Amino acid sequence: MSSKYETVIGLEVHVQLDTETKVFCGCRNAFGAEPNTQVCPVCLGQPGVLPVLNKKAFEFAIKVAFALNCQVQKIIKFDRKNYYYPDLPKNYQISQYDMPIAYNGKLNVSDEAGKVREIGVTRAHLEEDAGKLIHDLSAPFSYVDLNRTGTPLLEIVSEPEIQSPEEAYHYLVTLKQIVKYLGVSDCNMEEGSLRCDANISLREEGAKELGVKVEIKNLNSFKAVRDSLLHEEERQEDLLDEGGTIKQETRLWNDSKNVTVSMRTKEGAQDYRYFPDPDLVPFEVEQETIREMKADIPELPEAKRKRFTKEYALDESDIEVLIAEKDTADFYEQVAAKAGDAKAACNWIKGEVMMHMNDRGTDIKGLGLDPENLARIIKMAVKGTISGLSAKEVLKANLETGEDPVKIVKEKSLEQVSDEGTLDEAVTKVIEGNERSVNDFKSGKENALSFLVGQVMKETRGKANPKLAGEMLRKKIAETR
Amino acid sequence: MKDILSSIDDCRSWLAEGGMSVKDAAGEFLARISEIDKDIKAFAFEEPDMVKARAGQIDGSPDNRRLRGVPVGIKNNICISGALTTCGSHILDGFRPPYNAHVVDLLLGEQALLFEGMNMDEFAFGSSCETSYYGPTRNPWDTARIPGGSSGGSVAAVAAGELAASLGSDTGGSIRQPASMCGVVGFKPTYGRVSRYGLMAFASSLDQIGPITRNVADCAEMLEVISGYDKRDSTSVNVEVPVYTDSLDSDIKGLRVGIPSEYFIEGIEGDVKKRVEVSIEALKGLGAETVEISLPHTKYAVSCYYIIGPAEASSNLSRYDGVHYGHRSEKAEDLRDMYIQSRNEGFGAEAKRRILLGTYALSSGYYDAYYLKAQKVRTKIADDFREAFKKCDCILTPTSPTTAFKIGERSEDPLQMYLSDIFTIPANLAGLPAVSVPCGLDGKGLPVGLQFMAAPFDEETLIKVAHAFERETGFSKEKPAVLK
Asked: Which residues of chain A does B200 touch, with a Cβ-Cβ cutoff of 8 Å?
């Protein structure tokens, strides 16, 4: 971007809260069921039914509020947002208008270089999700699936303080990480449990007034958010450079064509006729609930990052890998403590363990690895009881059978041979059989030794302690001089 | 026709003496209804097979609960699972709710024999029962006249001896005003006393279900059955329900009855005023004291009500759109058109008027001037009552400024129609309990109603004073010609 303009971005993120039941009725809240099987008169909007707030959804929202450094509203009030759509059976959405559950928060967003900037969180409010329309292009009608109707949603709105598409991307990564840490949503964009709309405007460098903003919808990944904003930034810049004006409008992102397309202009803006929902009595948040929710917030990524840096001598990039998911970070700490080697634990997790996770398409929990077992394997490898190669084999076997690593080592007789007497034969044999390499080493070619060690390993079928084999080779070759 | 349902107790005796099954009794009731109702039209429609099936279920149970076999009418905006429930509207054609209202569960639990289909003004919008899609209900005292509304069907059926009791809903007087015009007892409980779960909402912050009966004792009994906290209604209040029948036969010596100066306004019919004055003397004779009180914001009540009520209704009624249930226009070309045509064909003139009023009042740019202002006025009205109840135990007013008017007389003049509820609306705005009891006939032989209001959750005082008044004056024993 040229320096003539500065970009102003604000993000609206919808997070589905992962409660057992829906926000205003007792229906199950789960993704992927047969259409219209998780419904009842309340979420179907039948005449005469009444909503009752799910306490859990409200508590989850409070947790997010604290994690985003928000102030929590003292009185919880719900409003009706009135609009007609077939996926909204009451033709109004229960939402929060002038008294969002949380407001005035902030989020520390760091970019890849580790530079941290504070982005304001304007508000977060609790509302019910709508259903889904399923369009069958071969039929003259559409289907309505109301399973999703009444899923608790938290809409988190940022201040228009994000300065670039890249920063918008990092804001989302940070936000998702926090929400996942809280365990209140799985933030799965494919399943729609996290959705995002973006607002972007340009203004002349140093200008105080905000420019005309454009809202972008249909963003199905964080990458789409970044790419659409980059595209929109460029489109607006070109338009302004040509002396044109930006229209306030909503544009849809077309992922395959990499462009935004106008959907509707502001003239079509709806009047939602918000008013307090008379079916839900405003109530005061109990101090007890506040205390409980505060106590229930785990150590969040930012604090964890600081602590890891202090407690474990690890590279910054390693720490990022370990704390990306709370479960992985917890797993790491257990392994590090039990194995007594923070660095080795880190290397094993980001190497072998994550490889197995990727292979199986699962996360650390789904892998079902006992941290105690991994610690044992690491200890054996560090101590030299088994070679690194064997250690990998033991892990693989443990993941398949769940068997005790010590037992696996015994059964497969993978113990490293660290006894000079036992190795002597192999070392002598290798020296005798590789005269050229021995001579090379003698003439100062250090790497010839690696070859010879390799030969000893081969001779012992991988069981020789390579360090010891190296030392013995050196000694013996020196003796033969 | 023999008045076998002059009270719930009478009904019980009749059932016991006959020694017949509830199913046989249901047959008798249905035959009786066919006979009487052809002139009254208290029923928007009848579903005799469903009534008989319910009777069979009661017969099949070994229990003997307090309302076993007692015929109770349910206003057609209260859901009975599987029963046609249309709110007197074309837009809910064919709608059968898949669940019971909380009050319906409670009545079924006491083995009451439920009758659906009691006629009503469309979505309870009206004071005359003339806006029903099924046509008007007639006043048993004079079939050329309206029974009042909106619970006109529920009230007329009880007044004409078709049913022993019924349930209505009261948003601005819809139980009390018709009770007054048909000479029966109608009770609107405190907001939050009775669960609204299963009541098709008109104005959620004003609606309350209540009983309509021939006398105060029956009213106390019905109230006892339907009251109580329901976790499915967030606005229902979790306070203990007294045994209301214990308040019957109480002495009212020293009871302070507030008389608001603002309620004796121009527009009250002379005979109504006279009946109320005579009633005040009767209460004094029973040892009650009268206290003059002031409710200065009462004059804004009707205006305030006609903002809040329609505003909430406009949102509550938006679900009737032809998409999920009820009437769907055959003419529609696309989705938007389907909404417009279905609603245009489905709603009557008064429903459209109120939806428009409410939509306007909530519109951006008008919200503060109308809805918000009305809410502030509402608070003032409630404050007036709080002040007043420091000086008195209950407040007495006429229930309605006039007795029953002729069918068609006010249907072209909504403002005149709205004024019929001028005395009943404040109790809804303030959430107070209120009851209308008969207090004699006017010169034309039409019933006049007397209203008592009390502080929130003080239904007991209303039962006490209404019962004492009824015993003293005997006006509840008056009955229309059809029952003589």
From this structure: 47-48
Q: Sheet holding A5-16: strands in order across?
A: A71-72, A102-110, A116-128, A152-158, A5-16, A194-204, A214-219, A249-254, A259-265
Domain hosting B467: range is 8-258+390-483
Asked if residue B428 is part of any domain, the answer here is yes
Complete domains list, chain A, with CATH: 5-289 (no CATH), 301-411 (no CATH), 420-479 (1.10.10.410)
Q: Which of A47, A84, A278 sits opposite B97 (nearest CB)?
A: A47
Of the candidates B6, B132, B154, B174, the residue annotated as catalytic is B174
Asked if A48 and B198 come within 8 Å (Cβ–Cβ), the reply is yes
CB–CB contact A53 B200 (8 Å)? no
Q: Which two tokens stand for residue A194?
A: 């996290």
pLDDT per residue, tens digit, chain B (484 aa), is 899 999 999 999 999 998 899 999 999 999 999 999 999 999 999 999 999 999 999 999 999 999 999 999 999 999 999 999 999 999 999 999 999 999 999 999 999 999 999 999 999 999 999 999 999 999 999 999 999 999 999 999 999 999 999 999 999 999 999 999 999 999 999 999 999 999 999 999 999 999 999 999 999 999 999 999 999 999 999 999 999 999 999 999 999 999 998 887 778 999 999 999 999 999 999 999 999 999 999 999 999 999 999 999 999 999 999 999 999 999 988 999 999 999 999 999 999 999 999 999 999 999 999 999 999 999 999 999 999 999 999 999 999 999 999 999 988 888 888 888 999 999 999 999 999 999 999 999 999 999 999 999 999 999 999 999 999 999 989 999 989 8
Residue from B123, B196, B234 to probe the interface with A (highest A Cβ count within 10 Å) = B234
pLDDT tens per residue across span B212-244: 999 999 999 999 999 999 999 999 999 999 999
Quick check: is B234 catalytic? Answer: no
Contacts B196 to A, Cβ<8 Å: 48, 50
pLDDT at A1 over 60: no
Residue B233 touches chain A, beta carbons under 8 Å: yes
Of the candidates B89, B150, B314, B400, the residue annotated as catalytic is B150
Handedness of CA A263, A269, A271, A272 (dihedral sign): positive
CA distance B29 to chain A (A): 29
Domain membership flag for residue B280: no
| Contact status of A89 with chain B (Cβ, < 8 Å) | yes
Residues 74 through 113 of chain B touching chain A, CB cutoff 8 Å: 77-79, 85, 87, 92, 95, 97-99, 101
Q: Is residue B268 included in any domain, yes or no?
A: no
B65 lies in a domain? Answer: yes
- Contact B355/A at CB under 8 A: no
Q: Closest Cα of chain B to A279: distance in Å?
A: 6
Which chain B residues touch A281 with a CB distance below 8 Å? 234-235
**Quick check: is B294 catalytic?**
no
Q: Which CATH number goes with the domain that contains B64?
A: 3.90.1300.10
User: Mean pLDDT throughout A87-110?
Assistant: 97
Total number of domains constituting chain B: 1
A80 in contact with chain B, both atoms CB, cutoff 8 A: yes
Contacts of B205 in chain A (CB under 8 A): 278
* Residue in B closest to A81 by C-alpha: B315
C-alpha–C-alpha distance, residues A148 and B398, integer Å: 51
